[in-house]
Write a structure and sequence with these properties.
The chain is built from 11 helices and 2 strands. A two-stranded antiparallel sheet has the order 1-2. The chain folds into 2 domains: about 15-295, Rhopdopsin 7-helix transmembrane proteins; about 295-325. Strand 1 and strand 2 form a beta hairpin. The longest helix has about 35 residues, at about 215-250. Helix 2 (about 50-80) runs parallel beside helix 4 (about 130-155), helix 3 packs antiparallel against helix 4 and helix 7 (about 215-250) runs antiparallel to helix 8. With about 325 residues, the protein is mostly helical. Keywords: Cell membrane, G-protein coupled receptor, Membrane, Receptor, Transducer, Transmembrane, Transmembrane helix. Its main location: membrane.
Length: about 325
């Protein structure tokens, strides 16, 4: 049942407790998974062949941790106690981080697609270097910060939503700018890069089938692209419903959208913070081996027969940024 109570809750108490338990589970998995990712990235910091790829992975993990630490607890509090939990100042802060986290996530994925394009499609020697990655990620944070700050300063405003647990920006001008700058533009960038990667692979399919060990680097780049494509696909599955509901709610059709849809799209977007660590540790052998070097008991979970020592040695000798099992 989704009706607003006298306390400002829009769920019955049993439903609110259930949703809060699910959200708290997402928070716990978010903290554990992304902390482990950052630990593995730190462990691999001296490996020059993975530093550029890992700085992007670390950036995504930091963003996901921000969502877990800053946004999810507020969502739980609002679910249980109602919108009265959010003051006017709290609403602005909550709305700011909602936009900041979402924008930074999708632009980081766009930057990763550029990295894959440069590594696979561009001529040899054109791949991104560490200083390029740092400048690109700095630009991502600046753009995301500016977009999130706009409703507080000069364009639009953040308001409580009567059907969700978070504050969201309103104002058609800002919504249009946000849609173009933080969804359409990065999505077009990713589409262009991955389409060209796909065409490159298709043109070289015969060569790929006959490559020898001398072509290990290119094979690894293609495997890395598969991981990144999976990350992108999961991002779209988790965030596209949220973005769609968000745009519709600001186009005068908010009354036609069920509160259940608002809540489910919000939970799905929050669950995205758990997905990336799962992808890295299941598809990336280097990450998996370094994790098992710390926690030998996980070998059974990953269904591998290699000893921890052998796995760690193999990881150290890997010539790839990411290697799919």
């Amino acid at each position: 049942m989704v009706n607003e109570t006298e306390e400002g809750r829009f769920l019955s108490l049993p439903a609110a407790i259930t949703l809060s338990a699910v959200t708290a589970t997402i928070l716990l998995l978010d903290l554990i998974g992304n902390t482990l990712v950052l630990c593995v990235v730190y462990r691999q910091r001296m490996k020059p062949n993975v530093r550029v790829g890992n700085i992007f992975i670390a950036n995504l993990s930091v963003i996901d941790l921000l969502m877990g630490v800053v946004l999810i607890p507020v969502s739980i509090a609002v679910t249980l106690q109602g919108r009265r939990v959010l003051t006017d100042a709290g609403c602005k802060i909550n709305g700011f981080f909602n936009i900041f986290v979402g924008s930074a996530s999708i632009w980081t994925l766009a930057v990763i697609s550029i990295d894959r394009y440069r590594a696979i499609v561009s001529p040899p020697g054109k791949r991104l270097q560490l200083h390029h990655a740092r400048w690109l990620l700095l630009a991502v944070w600046i753009v995301s910060f500016a977009m999130a700050l706009a409703p507080i300063t000069f364009l639009g405003e953040y308001k409580r939503n009567t059907k969700s647990t978070n504050c969201r920006p309103v104002g058609q001008g800002y919504i249009l700018l946000l849609s173009v700058a933080c969804f359409l533009s990065p999505f077009v960038t990713m589409t262009y890069c991955y389409l060209n990667v796909y065409l490159k692979v298709r043109r070289q399919r015969i060569q790929l089938q006959s490559w020898t060990s001398n072509s290990t680097n290119m094979k690894t780049e293609l495997k890395t692209a598969k991981i990144v494509f999976t990350v992108l696909a999961v991002f779209l599955v988790c965030w596209l419903p949220f973005v769609t509901v968000y745009i519709l709610s600001n186009s005068g059709k908010s009354q036609d959208i069920s509160p259940v849809i608002f809540l489910l799209s919000g939970c799905l977007s929050a669950a995205h913070s758990v997905c990336n660590p799962v992808i890295y540790f299941t598809m990336n052998r280097s990450f998996r081996n370094d994790l098992m070097a710390w926690f030998p008991g996980l070998r059974k979970f990953f269904n591998t027969r290699d000893s921890v020592t052998h796995a760690a040695t193999k990881s150290n000798k890997a010539a790839a940024v990411m290697e799919i099992k």
